[in-house]
Amino acid sequence: MGDDDSKYDEEKPCHRLHLDGFWIMKTPVTNAQWRTFVQATGYKTPKYWSDGQIPAEKERHPVVEVNWHDAREYCHWLAAQIGLDVTLPCEAQWEKAARGSGDKRRYPWGNEFNKYKANISESGIGTTTPVDQYPAGASPYGVLDMSGNVWEWTRSIFDQERFPYPYRVEGDREKLDAEGGRVLRGGSWYYNRVDARVSLRLRYNPFYSDYSIGFRAVAPIVLRAGF
């Protein structure tokens, strides 16, 4: 986790961390998935949905303009549907899913930047893309869009004085009721290759929303009888 060669001190030092097993969504939550949530709960639709409807041909695009609290509400609802403790990933889980465990790669696909493997500013698209448009950019675990398309909320607090690297899973870093900015990961269509690195950390107010911010969810691995 981290990058000793980064120009940003908050990514240092690079260090090894063990995490318990977890499941993570293969893609960011899509507009279509958010619509299912809205239909089931009556929750608000994003502002860019005209008359509460998904823009044409955007069903498979990531839902955006959702703040951290909105993302948490989706996770809470999904947890009730599937019977698992669904949450936003901590940033260590997010980086693990993006990087794998075999090396210190800078991007999900390796160390070399490639604008054809992610939707970032160098790709020249200028907006979101379907979440399955870049299979060649998959992480070692087959997770998509970990670089580019949309920034993704994590549940982790960004506070260098209280929670510096090396990362520690225990403590108050992941408390959902704590005040403070939360970590975004992954870069977006609006940002460049530097911000799309798997170790890059960005801090935002949890009440902030933007057309370049979305999320995905995680759940602990639970073995059930018969499986």
Helices and strands in order:
Blueprint: E1 22-24, H1 31-41, H2 68-82, H3 91-99, E2 151-157, E3 182-185, E4 202-204, E5 213-214, E6 218-220
Parallel strand pairs: 2-5
Antiparallel strand pairs: 1-6, 2-3, 3-4
Outline:
With 227 residues, this protein is of the alpha+beta class.
Write up what this structure looks like.
With 227 residues, the chain is of the alpha+beta class. Helix content is 15%, strand content 10%. The chain has 3 helices and 6 strands; from the N terminus they run E-H-H-H-E-E-E-E-E.
Q: What are the main properties of this structure?
A:
two-stranded antiparallel ribbon; four-stranded mixed beta sheet; single chain; 227 residues; alpha+beta
Strand content: 5-15%
Which class best fits the helix and strand makeup?
A: alpha+beta
What is the makeup of the main sheet?
4 strands, mixed
What general outline do the C-alpha atoms trace?
globular
